[in-house]
Design a protein that fits this description.
With about 475 residues, the protein is α+β, with helices and mostly antiparallel strands. It folds into 2 domains: about 270 residues, Butyryl-CoA Dehydrogenase, subunit A, domain 2 (Beta Barrel); about 190 residues, Butyryl-CoA Dehydrogenase, subunit A, domain 3, CATH 1.20.140. It is about 50% helix and about 15% strand. It is built from 18 helices and 14 strands. A 6-stranded mixed β-sheet has the order 2-1-10-11-7-6, with no helix packed on it. A 4-stranded mixed β-sheet has the order 5-8-9-12. Helix 4 runs antiparallel to helix 10 and helix 9 packs antiparallel against helix 15. The structure holds flavin-adenine dinucleotide. The site of flavin-adenine dinucleotide has 22 residues, from strand 5, strand 7 and helix 16.
């Protein structure tokens, strides 16, 4: 059953411990700044209730009934394409800003389905059953999920068990008959404050000495011992009264440092408990699904930038100029390369019989993700080049609120045509927010989120099948007579 956005917002008033700028937050859904990411998340629920989008955002499952389409388990190319379209379109409907609360958690659940089948086979555990039970519970109750993979990591040259402080990686501190206790902290957990449940998985491969760090589980965000420290939402705080601002007042997500202090995890919520040889495998399978998601939402972000760039070029009167066409082609290349990689990853997916899952092609997924990481700054350079300096120096909304000043400013901010001036001002404002108060988040996010540049390079080197290329190299050099 899908729930309403009001029910969703109410569900977050559950005693969870969240700190924002040094203060304990009473109710995230009503907090001056945090309500913005909560409302952004809730827009996914609004789409489910909207008859224009119900067909895309809801899915009638034989066993679970009417559920969110994010919870649909992809079993073939067509269903992966539907997932791509779902993420792409919901991001467009969020004004080009990703809405993570159901996408990331289901990416993790799919990876867990795949990996736990293999753990169970080797160790006769029953983790797959636990994952499926959690999956059904989350789908049937239409829950929002956050995924905490990235540990604080301390000294990056040391393994988890070698750290001076053992809490640098989330780990098991006690095992009891009914479950385990975990401590440590995860970094950058997007929308944890807006999630009903947190899914925790390892961030790296581990050896026998790291056994207690090889742990995966799902737990309600209000569980005793969990504390979330939110980043400051500067991009929200600076535009609270700004009538020209849209995205900063509506479409922002927030990350937390998520601390686990002796948190109890009952047995049926545990998906990995010391099987260290599977930690790296799980750490790698989750990004395979999540980078497919990343290609889909980043393509939509590209679409937002293309539209903004094209409109500004037109209003500035330079749309047909060859230099501007070159700028726009960089934006188009960014979006369409990501989309093409997502489509290729869906078409060249593999099917896993045991978990009944279609897995996006790992090479196309990582090639696309790497391209997205490495070319983002180029995209920003080109859109700023199109926009001109007014994107930085335009007067504020207060000046536009005062009729005398507004009249003068609108006269001088006219470019191609007077009737377009206010729209031009709005585009400058949106882009200014995007490259300034959103800038640090997006710069780090586009380079690091869904795994760093190095993580994709490692994955490509690990999974690339060189055999055909080597055969061709030998054939071309005359080492072999035939391919
Ligand atoms: C906006 C945003 C949202 C995010 N959302 C989430 C989320 O929802 N859930 C989640 O789990 N994570 C999330 N992340 C985390 C993201 O996956 C990480 O930022 C990324 O994996 C890099 O890890 P790090 O930040 O610890 O950087 P580091 O690991 O410190 O990396 C910094 C640099 O050091 C290099 N490096 C690190 N270790 C080594 C080593 N041993 N040898 C050589 N080089 C090394 C890296 O390659 C990189 O160049 C998010 C990140 C951002 C920025």
């Amino acid at each position: 059953m899908v729930i309403s956005s009001d029910e969703y917002r109410e569900s977050l008033n559950d005693g969870r411990i969240v700190y924002y700028r040094g203060k304990l937050v009473e109710n995230v859904a009503e907090h001056l700044a945090l309500k913005v990411p909560v409302n952004h998340a809730s827009s996914i629920y609004d789409l489910q209730a909207d008859q224009n989008y119900r067909g895309m955002t809801c899915y009638n499952d034989d066993k679970l009934g009417n559920i969110s389409s994010f919870y649909r388990i992809p079993q073939n190319t067509e269903e992966l394409m539907q997932r791509h379209d779902l993420i792409y379109e919901t991001t467009r409907l969020g004004r080009g800003q990703f809405n993570i609360v159901k996408a990331i958690g289901t990416d993790a659940i799919f990876a867990l389905m795949y990996v736990t089948k293999r753990i169970d086979e080797k160790y006769q555990t029953s983790y797959y059953e636990n994952v499926m039970k959690f999956y059904r519970y989350a789908a049937e109750n239409d829950l929002s999920l956050a995924l905490a993979q990235t540990d604080m990591k301390g000294d990056r040259s040391l393994k988890p068990s070698e750290q001076k402080d053992p809490d640098m990686y989330v780990h098991i501190v006690k095992r009891e008959k009914e479950g385990i206790y975990v401590s440590g902290a995860k970094a950058h957990t997007t929308q944890s404050i807006a999630a009903n449940e947190l899914i925790v998985i390892p961030t790296r491969n581990m050896g026998a000495e790291d056994k207690d760090y090889a742990v995966a589980f799902a737990i309600p965000a209000n569980t005793k011992g969990i504390t979330m420290f939110a980043r400051p939402l500067k991009e929200v705080e600076t535009v609270q009264n700004d009538k020209l601002s849209v995205i900063g007042r509506k479409n922002v997500e927030v990350e937390t440092i998520t601390v686990f202090d002796n948190v109890f995890i009952p047995n049926d919520r545990i998906f990995l408990n010391g099987e260290c040889d599977f930690a790296g495998f799980l750490a790698m399978m989750f990004p395979t699904f999540h980078r497919f998601t990343a290609l889909s939402y980043r393509a939509a972000l590209g679409d937002f930038l293309i539209g903004t760039g094209k409109l500004l070029a037109e209003y500035n009167g330079v749309a047909g100029k060859s230099n501007i066409r070159r700028n726009l082609s960089v934006l188009i290349k960014y979006k369409e390369t990501l989309k093409a990689n997502a489509i290729a990853a869906a078409y060249k997916c593999s099917y896993d019989k045991s978990s009944k899952l279609a897995i996006p092609n790992i090479v196309y997924t990582n090639v696309g993700k790497l391209f997205a990481n490495e070319n983002y700054t180029e995209v920003i350079k080109n859109i700023v080049d199109i926009a001109g300096g007014m994107v930085a120096t335009m007067p504020s909304y207060e000046d536009f609120g005062n009729s005398d000043e507004e009249k003068i400013l609108l006269k001088f901010l006219t470019a191609r045509d007077k009737s377009e001036t206010l729209d031009r001002v709005k585009l400058f404002q949106t882009l200014r927010e995007f490259i300034s108060s959103f800038g640090a988040l997006y710069l780090a996010g586009m380079i690091h989120a869904e795994g760093s540049i190095e993580a994709s390079i490692l994955e490509l080197n690990r999974s690339y099948d060189y055999s055909g290329s080597i055969a061709l190299g030998k054939y071309a050099a005359g080492i072999e007579d035939h391919l």
